[in-house]
């Protein structure tokens, strides 16, 4: 039985909330447990995020497990979902992300909302976001086309954990997560002034990946029609 739209929206909201809570919460924990060691902090942050993504995708995949506006927009571009669904999913993801950020702040005894002052800019960093998002979309839709769909969770979790390290931006690769991370002035935060460029490059990476997906997996586009 196909899940109703309301159930899918709740799944997207909850999944994105837990994802952001993991990113921010593990970043706060890492900075407290390993003060002065940025490399160790990033390792702790990346391992927690990758592991949480595996668990969340496995848990929510029977209902809906995109958790990312770029993935949702690519799904719309190749015809897997309609425009109304896509818009509703993006709203749910953004709201869920913000709730996750607030929850993480409060859990660690911080103000519910504290605007980040962590500026992230520069050509290399922005290129890193485009590369991270491009790769993520390829991994998601490539794994979906495999004979074992249960591997999607492990592929995505592993990719994101690795992309924290091989991209200069530490792989946000998600507009909803990016917006939510402005609400926490902690290790994982991003200043509001950096968001527009990050999201723009994420969309560029996603658009290029959508073209690559259509080329690499033409059957997916045909089946969606």
Structure description:
The structure is a single chain. The protein has helices at residues 5-33, 38-60, 69-77, 83-107, 123-144, 152-166, 175-180, 192-216, 218-224. The protein has 225 residues and is mostly helical. The model has no long low-confidence stretch (mean pLDDT 95). Its main location: membrane. It is a multi-pass membrane protein. The chain crosses the membrane at residues 9-30, 50-74, 86-110, 122-144, 151-167, 187-216.
User: Helical region count?
Assistant: 9
Low-confidence stretches: none
Q: Name the helicity range.
A: over 70%
Question: Could you name the CATH topology?
Answer: Glycerol uptake facilitator protein
The CATH superfamily turns out to be: Glycerol uptake facilitator protein
Pfam family, one: MIP
GO molecular function, one term: water channel activity
Main location: membrane
Organism: Nocardioides kongjuensis
List the helices and strands and how they pair.
Layout: H1 5-33, H2 38-60, H3 69-77, H4 83-107, H5 123-144, H6 152-166, H7 175-180, H8 192-216, H9 218-224
Helix pairs in contact: 1-2, 1-4, 2-6, 3-4, 3-8, 5-6, 5-8, 8-9
Features of the shown structure:
225 residues; mainly alpha; single chain; Glycerol uptake facilitator protein; globular; 0% strand; 9 helices
């Amino acid at each position: 039985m196909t899940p109703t739209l309301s159930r899918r929206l709740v799944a997207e909201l909850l999944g994105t909330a837990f994802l952001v809570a993991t990113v921010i919460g593990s970043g706060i924990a890492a900075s407290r447990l390993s003060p002065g060691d940025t490399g160790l902090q990033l390792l702790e942050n990346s391992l927690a995020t990758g592991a949480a993504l595996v668990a969340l995708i496995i848990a929510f995949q029977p209902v809906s497990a995109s958790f990312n506006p770029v993935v949702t927009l690519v799904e719309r571009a190749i015809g897997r979902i309609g425009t109304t669904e896509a818009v509703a999913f993006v709203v749910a993801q953004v709201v869920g992300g913000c709730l996750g950020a607030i929850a993480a702040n409060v859990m660690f005894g911080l103000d519910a909302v504290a605007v980040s002052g962590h500026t992230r800019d520069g050509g290399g960093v922005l290129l890193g976001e485009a590369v991270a998002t491009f790769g993520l979309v390829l991994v998601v839709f490539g794994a979906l086309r495999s004979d074992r769909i249960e591997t999607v969770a492990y592929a995505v979790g592993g990719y994101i954990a690795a992309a924290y390290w091989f991209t200069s931006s530490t792989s946000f690769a998600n507009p909803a997560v990016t917006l939510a991370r402005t609400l926490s002035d902690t290790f994982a935060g991003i200043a509001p002034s950096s968001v527009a460029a990050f999201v723009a490059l994420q969309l560029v990476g996603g658009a290029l990946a959508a073209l690559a997906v259509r080329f690499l997996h033409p059957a997916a586009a045909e089946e969606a029609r």
